[in-house]
């Protein structure tokens, strides 16, 4: 009699949803301070950024400089400002994106055993767009908390539920989905760039006999894919963050936000926090 093996039975949709969301939340607990530092760097330089309302200008320099400044000025808890919304975002985003990926991939391949890179890209972009649509309100609240100076009394929001209520009251329910367009665009660019560049770099390394198909090869390919993804997707990521964090009427659209950044701060503004974005892209690929 053959013994039962867990691998013989594919996981149910419920298991995929819960497993993906839980794993993403655990990972977020460790990387959240880096994400907060990225947001602070990305919004730095805005003349009307709500992050500095009621406070003097705070200058952040680099990844560790940003983290140390936040700890000194606002305390260690500031690094986890918006964590509740962040975990809500990870649970909803990862659950939809990963939980539905296999089903959507099968839809594009029409049941075929051969899964090409085109089908993978389409499935990744589709589930990514669906995940953004579901998780966008949590992402908006997360970003606004991360951008908010924790020290002092002039806070935009005083709790996660207060943030949802305040945004819906002041900006309408559409305000909770602010920045959905650039967020979907960013997600599509990241998915496509990571998968394509990772495969191309790994194939190039193997065909040139520079490396064998082992951990160093995958590590090198992942690092290169993360760098390429940053170069291409970082501008959209910065625009997404600024537009989501903006006060009502500050920008008429995401495109207006991008134009304002270019005219007032120059091209370099689109790569603020790019070192941290490289870290996230690199982590996702491996």
From TrEMBL:
Swiss-Prot/TrEMBL GO biological process terms: transmembrane transport
Family annotation (Pfam families): Mito_carr
Subcellular location: Mitochondrion inner membrane
Keywords, ordered alphabetically: Membrane, Mitochondrion, Mitochondrion inner membrane, Repeat, Transmembrane, Transmembrane helix, Transport
Solcar repeat feature ranges: 11-107, 115-204, 213-286
Catalytic activity annotation: L-aspartate(out) = L-aspartate(in); (S)-malate(out) = (S)-malate(in); chloride(in) = chloride(out); oxaloacetate(out) + phosphate(in) + H(+)(in) = oxaloacetate(in) + phosphate(out) + H(+)(out)
Protein name: Dicarboxylate carrier UCP2
Family that this chain belongs to: Belongs to the mitochondrial carrier (TC 2.A.29) family.
